[in-house]
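Hey all, quick one. A colleague (J.T.) asked me to put the zinc ion job into the tracker so the inputs and the structure tokens live in one place instead of scattered across chat threads. No bug as far as I know, just bookkeeping. Sequence used:
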Amino acid sequence: MIKMPFYEIQDGIYEIDEFDCDNIFVIVGDDKALVVDTGCGIGDLRDTIKRITDKPYEVVLTHAHPDHIGGADLFDEIWLHPDDWWMLDKEICAKAPTLEYRKNYTEIIRNREKKFYDYDPDIDMHEWEKVPKLLPLKDRQVFDLGGRKVTAYHCPGHTPGEMVLIDDKTRTLLAGDACNCNLLVNSAWKDTPRESVKSMMEALKEIEKLSNLYDHMYNSHHDFRSFGCKLPLHVLTNAVKCMESVLNGTAEYVELPNPLSKNGGTKIFAICGKSMISFMEGNIKDECK
Ligand SMILES: [Zn+2]
């Protein structure tokens, strides 16, 4: 059995490391648990959840990128914002969670991290056996786990249906991919790349306005922070500032290696403090002039 390491990051909140591909969170209440994301689909996530809790649980996805939805077929139903449902269809979405796409992604991570991982993609990853039933996750939907409530907030921009979650017991924000030190904006989300940046910035400002509800933040990829450690709150503030600078023409740009390039390619990033913003596809500097 593939054993994924996990760490209790806050009282009753566990972070699971899926071999540097993605981080999955399990929030355990008195009555039930909430699983946040399902990784790329390496091994059987249900075994790791069992090591954490024997309580019944629901599964919620921050968004539908293949490194977050990859293991979703193990579950009968998942909560996902409807604006991301189209991303499961490989006929219309280049990032649909096919086995080929997910294996390709794990290969990039394995090579990038230059580490040995205790899994074999050819044995431990599989094509989906079924599509789970999709449940429509809504903005401000509350999951009452018993002794703690977790609220989901819509924060689009990385994907149209991106969500973040706030746990009231520990005042913890799980930011998914909506905030990290290397923020990827979907430039085609709105009519123009500028409009995409502006809309994502406005969504992040709404999350900043909720700062009276959280003291801690964790994102979904611990290569932007040490495993089990928090993402500093100023990363969110700087991400907003960085987007403002892109829109008002004062941004500082740098060309750096693209962490998701297979052949050592580079890309252009706007930077502000420890926050960098770039487009998933395209050049943020040229397209936001
Ligand atoms: Zn993502």
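Adding what we noticed when we looked at it: The helical segments are 45-52, 66-69, 99-113, 121-124, 193-209, 234-248, 284-287. The chain has a mean pLDDT of 94.
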